[in-house]
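[Q] Does anyone have a clean structure-token version of this?
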Amino acid sequence: MRLCLDQSVLCWVATADDCGRPNVSPKEVFASDLTRILIAHIASPKTVRNIEFNSQVMVSVVDVFAQQGWQFAGEASLVWADSSEFDEVASSLNAITDGLYPMKAVLVVDVQEAKRIVAPSSWLFPDKPTDLVRKQVLSRYGVEELSVEKMRRQSP
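[A] Here you go.
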């Protein structure tokens, strides 16, 4: 779970409004500790409005090339920038962005449940090694995965 959270570039937050209409929104600045997921509120007015009405949320992260990930259910709260605890809560998020993203608040999700997400092909072919799945998906989408050595050779 932790590795998937650490390696993902987006998480998706699902909320519901006061009429029960769902909203799913991508978030690119997030971090986790042992029991919480911390998400920067940069431009998330609908997510914030929904959480103020209904604090139950789902957060999903997926490695699209491995075709698996995690879904986290929990209760969300907001720590606003003018709060005394904001600097502490936002420190890991500021480290990710070098402090360049203006955060209005931090969405703190206290994780209550975690569930594995897997593509249907994982159920159909359970014995297929994860590295082979990744290689096939990368090939299907025409993506070349760079090794650390290749990245070093390509950097200026």
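[Q] Thanks! Anything notable?
[A] The helical segments are 2-7, 45-53, 86-97, 120-124, 130-140, 148-154.
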